[in-house]
Automatic annotation (TrEMBL):
It comes from the Bacteria. InterPro entries: Beta-grasp_dom_sf, HD/PDEase_dom, HD_domain, NT_sf, RelA/Spo_fam, RelA_SpoT, TGS, TGS-like. It holds the Pfam family TGS. Transmembrane segments: none annotated. This is TGS domain-containing protein. Belongs to the relA/spoT family. Residues 409-470 form the TGS domain. Residues 54-154 form the HD domain. One of its GO terms (cellular component) is plasma membrane. GO terms for biological process: guanosine tetraphosphate metabolic process.
Length: 505
């Protein structure tokens, strides 16, 4: 398939279109056709290191977005995401051909792609890096396009030089996979980690792969056996259920094996392959649980977790139960509705599809019955985006809401070493200095932003690299700084100095 000359580009594009016709039966694909012609032209003669034509990467990104049930604007933008940066296209042309909305998404992807995600030392900075990413993306769809782009880049990472492989794989493991997780896309996050795994920990990867092979096989066989009899029993209850075997991602299996209480004892891992039962409604989930327990006894103490009644912080919902399968082997069974399944696999992106369903006047009652709506409590700040979406009627209002009001008043800047600091909007180098360390505030001589000297009252922007040029000796803060600093820390420090000097006088 990677024979550069023989790729049937049009055939590949046809595949993506037929996938889209399933997701959007009434969608107008003419604009997509034009985007396809546009991107091929923009990348004329360009090849990826895999030897494949560049346009195929644009198409692969669009295909992934289609699989996540994103809206057509995102998919069109995915098809064009490198047309400016790596292709020969101009922004004006994209605006003229496809409108401002598509151009904004393509711009957004370019902007966050140019962020230098340097290696950071601790979890605090890495978390800020992820937040910065979201803040700079402005529109959530930009993040999804970037994730799709990264997923395909990981799938083709083998073609890159080793140094680059390692950097990109690390970045994926530290930034992109957790970001996907935050957005509720656990399947995508798991795939990303598995793709990064062999590049970062090659020996460990081989070992886990080798040691786990038989275990995967054994449990899969067991689940197949259980599946046949369970399907019949569920049908007796009048349920049309679908039963799948879900294999645990290799990287997450490795993390689990390494835990002190597991110590590579496979007998202590009950979900290496789990049985997944998919049904239509929430009440069917509980009926299915009853059926399972009638034929396979739940394991005492390990028992049931009801994440439908009590969803996980990232919104995950399902019922998990551990039962004694044939031969006494413990098997994990996960029960959920199709709507919950889509959300667990595709996270927030699945909500675009459900939003479409709502436009078709599907009742709230129905949405609740099939589990498309999560309870409101215990939502993280990312999940709140979903919540806003549910409350919004027309799409324009909706687009405003996904633009991250929550993060609009924050900026994220880098230290020269690559650490990330979160500051309020209009923060200055003085605010930055006091945020890094109170002591640094006493050595401010001047400040550089992105290598250039700036006034101390300069307003910082997200992505700036800020450097404080230090004086030889500590000196008191200037009262005039109070006119422009915005952080409490800076104000407090300057004021407390002024007070002590007043007292002395
Ligand atoms: Mn790309």
């Amino acid at each position: 398939m990677t024979n550069g000359n023989k790729i049937d580009l049009e055939g590949e594009y046809g595949d993506v279109k037929s996938l889209l016709r399933q997701v959007y039966p009434d969608g107008d694909l003419k604009r997509l056709d034009r985007a396809w012609e546009f991107t091929k032209l923009a990348h004329t003669g360009q090849k990826r290191l895999t030897g494949e034509p560049y346009a195929l990467h644009e198409l692969a990104t669009a295909r992934i977005l289609a699989g996540w049930k994103m809206d057509l604007v995102s998919i069109t933008s995915g098809l064009l995401h490198d047309a400016i940066e790596d292709g020969g296209a101009k922004r004006e042309d994209i605006v003229a051909e496809f409108g401002e909305e598509v151009a904004l998404l393509v711009d957004g992807v370019t902007k966050i792609s140019n962020l230098k995600l340097r290696e950071s030392r601790n979890e605090f900075f890495v978390e800020n890096l992820r937040k910065m990413f979201l803040a700079m993306a402005k529109d959530l769809r930009v993040v999804f396009i970037k994730l799709a782009d990264r997923l395909h880049n990981m799938q083709t990472l083998y073609a890159l030089p080793q140094q680059k492989q390692l950097r990109i794989a690390k970045e994926t493991l530290e930034i992109f996979a957790p970001l996907a997780d935050r957005l509720g896309m656990s399947e995508v996050a798991g795939d990303m980690k598995d793709l990064a795994f062999p590049y970062i920990y090659p020996a460990e990867f081989k070992e886990v792969q080798k040691e786990s092979k038989l275990h995967y096989k054994e449990v899969t066989k067991l689940i197949k056996k259980m599946k046949r009899s369970l399907l019949a029993k569920l049908a007796d209850e009048g349920m049309r259920a679908n039963i799948q075997a879900r294999e645990k991602h290799l990287y997450s299996l490795w993390r689990k094996l390494e835990r002190p209480e597991i110590k590579w004892d496979f007998e202590k891992i009950h979900d290496i392959v789990a049985m997944r039962i998919l049904v239509d409604t929430v009440s069917e989930c509980y009926t299915a649980l009853g059926v399972v327990h009638r034929f396979y006894k739940p394991v005492p103490h390990l028992g049931i977790s009801d994440f439908i009644a009590q969803p996980k912080p990232n919104g995950y919902r399902s019922i998990h139960t551990k039962v004694f399968g044939p031969g006494g082997k413990i098997v994990e069974v996960q029960i959920r509705t199709w709507a919950m399944h889509d959300q667990a696999e595709y996270g927030l992106s699945a909500h675009w599809a459900y939003d479409e369903a709502k436009k078709k006047k599907v009742s709230d009652e129905f949405m609740e019955k099939v589990g498309a709506v999560a309870p409101k409590d215990k939502l993280s700040w990312v999940r709140q985006l979903v919540d806003w979406q549910k409350e919004i009627k027309d799409s324009e209002e909706y687009m405003e809401a996904v633009k991250f009001d929550a993060l609009n008043n924050r900026i994220f800047v880098f230290s020269p070493k690559g650490d990330v600091y979160e500051l309020p909007k209009s923060a200055t180098p003085v605010d930055y200095a006091f945020a890094v360390h109170t002591d640094l505030g006493k050595y401010i001589k001047s400040a550089k932003v992105n290598g250039k000297i700036v006034p101390l009252k300069h307003n910082l922007n997200s992505g700036d690299i800020v450097e404080i040029v230090k004086s030889k000796n500590p000196h008191p803060p200037s009262p005039s700084w109070l006119d422009f600093v915005v952080t409490l820390e800076a104000k407090k420090e300057i004021n407390s100095y002024l007070r002590t000097t007043e007292e002395k006088v």
